[in-house]
Every structure is written in structure tokens, then in C-alpha cells.
Amino acid sequence: MLSIAVLTDHIRDLDVAAVAALTTPELACIADDLAEQKASLGLIEDKLRAALDQKYGARAAQRRAEEAKDTGTVRFDDNGFVVVAELPKRVKWDQAKLRHAAEIIRASWGDDPAEYIKTRLEVSEAAYANWPKPLRDLFLPARTVETGKPSYRIETAGEAARSVSLGREAA
Questions:
Q1: How many domains does the chain have?
Q2: Mind listing the pLDDT tens digit for each residue in 32-56?
């Protein structure tokens, strides 16, 4: 079997047309190399993040306590460098309780809940596909279908056969 070793470094300075002109085995090799590099960088990033948290987490928590805040950004010096420690706020709202609060605002206070609560209406695509035609037609003017970036994966014939047999064939 032919062994092809084309790595991402080989295509760094090529234009898109030159890359597209590569053979399928060369493109597969590059895709494999890129996947390995991404996985490796992900592991390194996770380790670095954990190490920074181990090294600076307590100081950042102490600084936040001094500034009377639970989340957000704090800064402190370390050996001639400024460490910027961010702890993002992730707020989640219980949808059922928000609906209840909106009803109280509307019914008991006589106010418009839209003054306080943002509402986003969504339709499940799977449900839409199963609706009767008159209902789909009613919603059709509100529906826009957009596409994302295309992606491609190159598999050996054996991998493709296994994917199909395992039910992973793309629709």
C-alpha cells in the first residue's frame, strides 16, 4: 500500500486551487493531520487552563471577594505581569416560572409582560415537517432556511462501509 505523508505544513503557502488539485489520498492525509493537531491543541489548552486555575484561582477568588463580586473580571500582579482573571456569569431562567411571572404581571398587575421579559417564538423543524399542509402553509411565510458552512470528511472505502452499516450515513 502506498504511504502518503502530506501534512498541514505542506499546504500553508498554497492557494486554494493548488490545495484542491491535490489527490484524494493527499487531502485525506491533510485532514487526518489537522484532526490530530486540533485534538493535541485541545489537550494542551485544557491542561493550561487547569494549570492557570490551580495557580491563580484562589487569588482571583480572593480579589473578587475584596471587590464584593461573585463573577466578572479581576486583575492582579504576578512577577511583573498583570493576570486578568475572568469568571463569566451564566444566567439561566426557568421557562415555566417565567411564564408564571408573566401571567401575574398581565393578570394581577395589568401590565404588559413584554416590558420585562423577552419572548422568542420557535418551531421545531421535526414538528413542522409532520404538520398537515394547511398548518405548514400558514407558517411558511415566517420560515427561512439558511445553510451553514459545508464540511467534508474523507473515509477509506472500508470506513464508509462501516459507517453505513452502523447507521451513520449522512442524510
A1: 1
A2: 889 999 999 999 999 999 999 999 9
